[in-house]
Automatic annotation (TrEMBL):
Pfam families documented for this protein: Pirin (PF02678), Pirin_C (PF05726)
Stretches that traverse the bilayer: none
Domain Pirin C-terminal: 210-314
Protein name per Swiss-Prot or TrEMBL: Pirin family protein
Species assigned in the record: Comamonas resistens
Gene3D superfamilies named among the record's database cross-references: Jelly Rolls (2.60.120.10)
Amino acid sequence: MTTTHPILESAPLGPRWPCLDPFLFCAHHDDSYPASDGKMGVQAVEFEGREMGSDFSAKDGFSMYHGEQIPGFPGHPHRGFETVTLVRKGRIDHADSLGAAARFGGGDVQWLTAGKGIQHSEMFPLLNSDQPNPLELFQIWLNLPARNKMVEPHFTMFWNEQIPRLSFGDAAGRKTTVTVVAGSLDGADKALPPPPESWASQADSDVAIWTLALEPGARWTMPKAAGAETHRMLYFFVGQSMSVDGEAVNEHLAMHIAAQRDLELVNTGKDTVELLLLQGKPIGETVAQYGPFVMNTQQEIMQAMQDYRRTQFGGWPWKDNDPVHGAENRRFARYPGATEDDLPPLAATA
């Protein structure tokens, strides 16, 4: 019988959640946007008391972020890492310096390799003028090893209909559902293939990104990680209470958990418990970061800044710095080279 505590460290959840190598950053945006002004933006009266252009206030239950009328993040650069964006509710309009564009949401995931440099925008169009426009998403930053930091940028979409969702019943028939964005589960590879130059594409990286939902009373044993060096962070963000291998958790926490052993998760509350898992073998390299640039040395950061000033990472092919893709409730992606996915809409608030 092991005596090692299953939760090695823990911290209360805030707007930005603590991460372990190979992950750099995890933000949980959960915004209760009101009905729109009819132009996909927030009604002007709601702007009072906000630092417009840099509003992270959560005033009245939402932030405008760097958006002026439509909330979101207008065009900005990245180099040296990847963004993985999981949208649980609402819509995101993406545009980038490759010429790619997308509207996605309701369970869709975007995976963007910044590599040697890309500009992109992430705007949150409010499509409903007669009802609220809730938005909930995770944005996760996954580091790239030094050998891949200057690869060509890559944009891809994982559509909700393509992402595996595995259901496990316990002895009492209570269900745990695991959504497998990346990694393997139940002895077989389940997830869609990550971008080719991602750390997640390396054979021994052991990267996993899962969301878990446990019904009240449900028990599920999370199998141990494949790698001896793997890090695991488990984020408890919805529900009343749970336990990790018998250790009670009665508040929403970020937990560094033991990765090299099976752990039984139990929902001990009366409501559904939801969790996010980020797992991976550490890259183990020095990280130098300045805002949207993540490299290995300060000299490389200075070079990134100089390159961006000189080249704009390929320029910005859009008329506006905060483009949105019309008022129609559709999902689509247009990739560099003009190939396009066009999907049926989900419910407006999904």
